[in-house]
Amino acid sequence: MTDKTDLDKQRLSIEAARLYYLSDYSQQDIAARLGLSRPTVSRLLQYAKENGFVRISIADPLEDLDALSGELVRRFGLQSARVCYSPRNDYQEIRGRVAAEAADYLDEAVQDGDIIGITWGTTMHALARRLRHKPVRGVEVVQLKGGVSHSQVPTYAAETAALFAEAFGTIARYLPLPVIFDSVELKRMVEEDRHIQRIIELGRQANVAVFTVGTVEEDALLFRLGYFDDKQRKMLRDVGAGDISSRFFDSEGRICSEEIDARTVGIDLHELRRKEKSVLVAGGPRKIRAIRAALAGRYANILVTDQFTALALLNE
User: Fold this and answer.
1) What integer pLDDT is reported at residue 182 of this predicted model?
2) Distance CA 158, CA 267 (A)
3) Of all residues in the chain, what percent carry a pLDDT higher than 70?
């Protein structure tokens, strides 16, 4: 074989490789374009690889997840972080992936005698649905905030608590109240009930708290439940960054409306800082601001999120 023949073969193999790898042509399409047979195109592509004209690398997102977790721990002073892989930076996709990762974490972390305090919402319901049964003893599950809504918009509060209880072989302790009352006086009067006091106290005693963050966007779940008038919604959108357990905070993690907070039933945010495991489960572009604010307030010591959200948190 002459040098010119080798050169022609090299050029032809490179042309075939460009069409195949860069332009997504099929081997049959390349054969028709270059006036060759399909087996000849296949041999040219193999020749291009063997001679180093084509270099194929695979970026495995999983290999960087541990590094992202470690950086989140260092940056935000966390006890631990779990970063899962999502193929798309899409909220619905990420919610399912993060929920599954959180379910795996709880399967590992929950021990005999734990008291698990939970909130509600679509992320928490997605998590609850992915929990596996774990044979533990003496575990209790308690709602950390009121779960009754007079709106037609579903909160999945009762379903979430029931699924948590089923997974850990116990019964759920429900907080059968609206999460936000119309007045402070009415809220205080209801909280004087002995049964309600016991549930709230059990939430304070919980050594594991599992929660997500809400946003202050117009379509936020709490806004759609009808708890706030137009003026209050505008105020929360202007100064708020998000909420945990229906308690709204600003970008520094500080309560942004003492008046609304005083009407809210459930765990106070500062109590989350005392938990053995305070687990924040959240991800997606719409939640980044709220997650960052929650971490600024040190309300979580364990974060479960996805790689897109982790990178966004670390890059700002």
Assistant:
1) 84
2) 17
3) 94
**Residue 245 contacts by C-beta under 8 Å, 6 or more apart in sequence?**
119, 144, 145, 211, 264, 266, 267, 269
Question: Averaged over 203-226, what is the pLDDT?
Answer: 86
d(CA 184, CA 45): 74
Residue 85 in contact with residue 97, Cβ under 8 Å?
yes
Q: What is the mean pLDDT of the chain?
A: 91
Whole-prediction pTM: 0.78
Residue 205 vs residues 42, 144, 243: alpha-carbon distances, Å: 67, 11, 21
Return the amino acid letter for 156: Y
SS (H, E, C) 167-231: HCCCCEECCCCECECCCHHHHHHHHCCHHHHHHHHHHHHCCEEEECCECCCCCCHHHHCCCCCHH
Residue 99, token pair as written in the block: 């929920």
* Percent of the chain residues past pLDDT 90, beyond the cut: 69
3-state secondary structure 223-292: HHCCCCCHHHHHHHHHHCCEEECCEEECCCCCECCHHHHHCECECCHHHHCCCCEEEEECCCHHHHHHHH
By the 8 A CB rule, do 121 and 290 touch? no
- Please tell me the distance from the alpha carbon of residue 211 to that of residue 282, in angstroms, as a whole number: 8
Distances (CA, A) of 185 to 41, 177, 181, 204: 81, 15, 9, 22
In this prediction, residue 3 carries a pLDDT of: 65
Q: What's at 292, amino acid-wise?
A: R
Question: Cβ atoms within 10 A of the Cβ of 169, count?
Answer: 13
Q: What is the pLDDT of residues 136-151, one digit of tens each?
A: 999 999 999 987 665 5
Map tokens 């006091």 to a residue: 197
- Number of helices (H) and strands (E) in the chain: give both, helices first: 15, 9
Which among 22-31, 55-64, 286-295 has the top mean pLDDT?
Answer: 286-295
Contacts of 203 (CB under 8 A, 6+ apart): 117, 142, 143, 144, 175, 266, 267
Residue 60 has pLDDT above 80, yes or no: no
Please give the backbone phi and psi of residue 81, each rounded to the nearest 5 degrees, phi first.
-140, 145
